[in-house]
């Protein structure tokens, strides 16, 4: 059998155009694509904090993702996890039924 090409970890560098974050649990580099001129993907951008002066924080509406601290106000306006306004025709619990017999108007009895 012919010798296979060396793996990225064997050479100590990630594949070209891929994230430079080493995932110890998987014993390999992250395979996500990075933006031009960047070293890490968006998921592992926190690992590059020493290279970047901007600080990322957890989104207060949805802790599953992070945002830059200086862009938090802009993010809160467009975050998909924000409370959306109800339409004008929406009435809370319109079909829920009566909660108590005392609520029945006398005309219906």
Automatic annotation (TrEMBL):
<feature type="domain" description="CHHC U11-48K-type">
    <location>
        <begin position="56"/>
        <end position="83"/>
    </location>
</feature>
<dbReference type="InterPro" id="IPR021721">
    <property type="entry name" value="Znf_CCCH-type_TRM13"/>
</dbReference>
<keyword id="KW-0862">Zinc</keyword>
<keyword id="KW-0949">S-adenosyl-L-methionine</keyword>
<dbReference type="InterPro" id="IPR022776">
    <property type="entry name" value="TRM13/UPF0224_CHHC_Znf_dom"/>
</dbReference>
<comment type="similarity">
    <text>Belongs to the methyltransferase TRM13 family.</text>
</comment>
<keyword id="KW-0808">Transferase</keyword>
<dbReference type="GO" id="GO:0030488">
    <property type="term" value="P:tRNA methylation"/>
</dbReference>
<protein>
    <recommendedName>
        <fullName>tRNA:m(4)X modification enzyme TRM13</fullName>
        <ecNumber>2.1.1.225</ecNumber>
    </recommendedName>
</protein>
<dbReference type="Pfam" id="PF11722">
    <property type="entry name" value="zf-TRM13_CCCH"/>
</dbReference>
<dbReference type="GO" id="GO:0008270">
    <property type="term" value="F:zinc ion binding"/>
</dbReference>
<dbReference type="Pfam" id="PF05253">
    <property type="entry name" value="zf-U11-48K"/>
</dbReference>
<keyword id="KW-0863">Zinc-finger</keyword>
<keyword id="KW-0479">Metal-binding</keyword>
<dbReference type="InterPro" id="IPR039044">
    <property type="entry name" value="Trm13"/>
</dbReference>
<dbReference type="GO" id="GO:0106050">
    <property type="term" value="F:tRNA 2'-O-methyltransferase activity"/>
</dbReference>
<keyword id="KW-0819">tRNA processing</keyword>
<comment type="function">
    <text>tRNA methylase which 2'-O-methylates cytidine(4) in tRNA(Pro) and tRNA(Gly)(GCC), and adenosine(4) in tRNA(His).</text>
</comment>
<keyword id="KW-0489">Methyltransferase</keyword>
